[in-house]
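Handover notes (outgoing to incoming on-call)

Open items:
1. Carbonic anhydrase: sequence verified, structure written out, both below. Nothing else pending on this one.
2. Nothing else urgent.
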Amino acid sequence: MVLMYLVICSVVLLPSSSSDFCYDEGYCDPYAWGDYFPSCHPIIEGHHSPINLDHQVRRNLSLDMLHLEGFDSTQRGRWRLKNDGHSIMLEVDSGMTVSGGGLPGTYETVQLHFHWGSSSTNGSEHTIGQLRFPMEMHIVNMKSIHPNLTAALDDPTGLAVLGFFIDVAYADNVNFRPISDAVPSVAYKGQTASIRPFPLISLLPQNNLSQYYRYHGSLTTPPCSQVVLWTVYEAPIYISWAQLKQFVNGVYSTEEGAEKQAHLHNNFRHIHPTFSRTVYASKDARVLTDATCPPLSGAAFTLLIALTVTGLSSAL
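Carbonic anhydrase structure tokens:
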């Protein structure tokens, strides 16, 4: 509980909109995406993502831990890591599915990708109590009745995305190295790298997978289709500063050899209102269903940092 207290109550409040993220062909302002992609226009009663998660959540006792089939096994063949110009994406082969936890069917895992900030800003898409984490990982899953993603975008619940906040610790996360070590090979837009599959469960906060929040939303990049059932987990994944810097300092939104090189920074969409949507807390969720965190004195804050670092060093 000390660790979770520090994460939720002491993360620095940062701006909720990106400033230098371009989504292809110079569309650099997510607020203006609707001018080019009509489905990205956030009209009233729209179900857009990301959102701020706050204490206005409703407990749903039927939301148990999701069933992550195949996440604990190592697939054959190779996976492909790719820089698509607006994220680093890991495309996986078939064999992993997500179901249960209130999802209306079985969803096949397709890919995972990342959102991050810069050397001076945090970059998670979702926020908790207006607080933003350094990174966020999305595991994208497509309803198994659909032949491809294009078909899934015509289904109001065609996609189920698992969102994980990423925070920073002192030591490398060895389970994250297959990705972070390969990032230099895909530094520039259009580059790809082949990596050996690994158990995807090793990336996740396995002791806290029953603690999450659920709402109906959208893709966070064009075409912003409102077809996503979001599962956003409370417990973050921890990586080192060095692993974070692989993304912040080493990834470009431009092709290698381009006349003007541009780092890929702040590739997150701005926060959207929930309007009439209900955000549900799983049966075991704790952070947003407890009382609001009281303010900390300087001495208490220092003590919590010391306790947290001790806990992290034994957990990594």
